[in-house]
Write a structure and sequence with these properties.
26% helix, alpha+beta, 7 helices, 17 strands, seven-stranded mixed beta sheet
Length: 302
Amino acid sequence: MASAAAAASGADVGAKLRVGAVQLNATEDVEANLETADRLARQAVRDGAALVVLPEKWTVLGRGEVMQDRAQTLDGEAVRWARALAREHHIDLIAGSFVHRRAGSAKTANTSLHVGPDGEILASYDKLHMFDVEVDGTRYTESEHEQPGESVVVTTVGANPQTDQGHLLGMSICYDLRFPELYRALSERGAEILAVPSAFTLATTRDHWETLLRARAIENQCFVIAANQIGPHPPGNRSGGRSMIVDPWGIPLAVAPDCETAIVADLDFALLADVRARLPALTHRRAPGLYAAAQSSGRPAP
């Protein structure tokens, strides 16, 4: 029995797709970050990945004013590199996210791109939720410099050139992971894969990361590819690593050690179809209005 999403997208439910997640330690040195991203993305490709996901802010990660100064446009070095790499190896590349300078805006965007095998930009997603929190005594205020996005984005990866069939991937970034309503919106739009490029703090990686990733996989019956930053970033922050690829049953298929690396795993879409057929929770969801905030309290009238 085929999954509803696969049927809608025309995807081959018997197909497998090898995917990779890059885990790196970005700093304020843009050139060094690009060199590391290139080395590790190529490592994933050598290991057979046809879809590679980079982490959040892989181009520059550090002090807010430095990231603003080193923000790039869609014509910048980072995007040119991403397009060239995808074209050279004929892969789908989710270029994590980068600090995106846009004409006419005082604030930057935290933007993730899907670059297709021909090197063309197929989708662009701006992070919806700003990380304005306090963790372990450190205050983060992304909204000071960044403008949140306004769109939910699904794109097609792994397209077969002969049939034009592929698999639908929902885009997200880091702190978005704490908002299940976004991922439900992605699955309702047919997503079979969820990409989560991240720079999760060390504390939240240790305590929340795996639980949240597995929950998003289980409740949406999707594969999850989560590429996280690892190690220290100026002015003294740390990311927790443990990049992970999770199946629709919530089982981790690959987990990164605590170092810069790339992990790969095979996504088996027959498994996804089987999970959705045997436990069709997505089809059991009631009308959205039923879940809306109640207008009155107490028991319903008999």
